[in-house]
């Protein structure tokens, strides 16, 4: 599988003033629509030695044993070259939060984290 990342952008038309900071187009039709093609990300497979996968998870709530069990069941080798974005609500207790993030870091090369409302109010008790 190939994931192609692309974004659109708007640019001002060329004018005789070049990069004049005071130039403002008057109509939306004066904008040029563009397309930027970024490098391809090839997904890794069990056989492949190249490629990268980016995974996103949220609402793990590992205070529940079945959710912590799911984290523990993730392969410790399969995702070593991949990236994981954890989009909040990992756990409600500090102990489970630290344990979960440690387990995820052991399984993925990079773990990016955005806190959720449950993470902002972690309790110290277990």
From TrEMBL:
Annotated protein name in UniProt: Calcineurin-like phosphoesterase domain-containing protein
Domain of life: Eukaryota
Any one Gene Ontology molecular-function term assigned to this protein's record: hydrolase activity
Residues in the signal sequence: none
InterPro entries: Calcineurin-like_PHP (IPR004843), Metallo-depent_PP-like (IPR029052), Pantetheine_PDE (IPR052963)
Domain Calcineurin-like phosphoesterase positions: 54-120
């Amino acid at each position: 599988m190939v994931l192609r990342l692309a974004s659109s952008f708007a640019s001002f038309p060329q004018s005789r003033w070049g990069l004049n900071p005071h130039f403002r187009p008057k109509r939306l039709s004066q904008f040029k629509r563009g397309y930027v093609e970024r490098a391809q990300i090839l997904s890794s497979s069990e056989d492949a030695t190249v490629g990268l996968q980016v995974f996103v998870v949220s609402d793990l709530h590992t205070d529940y044993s079945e959710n912590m069990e799911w984290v523990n069941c993730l392969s410790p080798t399969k995702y070593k070259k991949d990236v994981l974005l954890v989009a909040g609500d990992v756990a409600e207790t500090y102990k489970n939060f630290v344990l979960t993030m440690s387990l995820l870091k052991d399984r993925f090369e990079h773990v990016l984290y955005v806190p959720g409302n449950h993470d902002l109010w972690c309790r110290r008790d277990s």
